[in-house]
Amino acid sequence: MDWIIGALGALLVSTAAYRKSSLSLSGMIAATIMGMVYYGAGDLFWFGILLLFFITSSIFSKFRGERKRELEKSYAKSGRRDAGQVFANGGLGMLACIGYAIWPDPVWAYLFVGTMAAVTADTWATEWGGLSRKLPRSVLTWRQLPAGTSGGVSLLGSTASLAGAMLIGGAAWLLLRWTDGTSTGTSVLPALSLWQWLIVGGISGFAGAFADSLLGATIQRMNRCPECGKSVEVDKHCGVDTVPLRGLRWMSNDAVNMLSSLAAGLIAWGLASALLI
Predict the structure, then answer these.
(1) Which residues contact 238 (CB under 8 A, 6 or more apart)?
(2) Each residue's pLDDT tens digit in the chain (277 positions)?
(3) Ordered DSSP codes for 69-138
(4) How many angstroms separate the Cα of 230 from the Cα of each of 126, 225, 245?
């Protein structure tokens, strides 16, 4: 029954997102599958955090979208998420949920919260940073960069990043209270306090977003537009094919997201373990 509830709930949300152009068709299918697994293999703790990330990110992607439209032309992923981006953001969390169902242990919850805090922090940083009136600065050299350049950070984006990460930490505490800290019929999920969850989510998520910017500034695959000279993530810009500029060929935006969220999950595990000593 839990799998059916999860499938129906995820289908309802993903269909609404598809109609609002927040998801492509492939993204809608992927989100439905993911939501079904999160609720079927887990419970409201896992599904609720996924839903919180997805809904807030979708809302912010549409907020003042006219100002972000030009920047999105440089991004490999726009406000309309496809299956690749859906799995890049929620795939590691889904594996943690399945891992918990097979082998109930608090470590899966720590990893899960860290990964979701990171993707939330990164998405919020991108959406709010795109509205900053000041140009971003390079995470490596601190020099000003053109808006939308990978590896750039801003005060507004960084503030939003920390807020998003802490929101996931706070939601973890609240959802565990609602579910009595149980999942898959066991009672082994961690009993951290609210402030401890805020620390775990805030630090791991913010660190994950920083790692995303660092990878974006160093080894992420970037191209140059021959027409306007901009450094972009896309293969086409200004109506022409872009040319390789730097980075590893296989290090796409999705790969960067997964690596940085994995790092955040490990940081969350370490922080939670230290706080429980």
Answers:
(1) 225, 227, 228
(2) 778 888 888 889 888 888 888 888 998 999 999 999 999 998 899 999 999 999 998 888 776 555 555 555 555 555 578 888 899 899 999 999 999 999 888 899 999 999 999 999 999 998 888 788 888 888 888 888 777 677 788 999 999 999 999 999 999 999 988 876 554 344 556 678 899 999 999 999 999 999 999 998 888 888 888 877 777 777 777 778 788 888 788 888 889 999 999 999 999 999 998 987 6
(3) HHHHTTSSS-SSB-HHHHHHHHHHHHHHHHHHHHS--HHHHHHHHHHHHHHHHHHHHHHHHTT-SSPPEE
(4) 18, 5, 10
Contact by Cβ (8 Å): 79, 98: no
Is the dihedral angle over the CA atoms 34, 50, 159, 189 positive or is it negative? Answer: negative
Residue 212 structure tokens: 């995303």
pTM of the predicted model as reported, rounded to 2 decimal places: 0.87
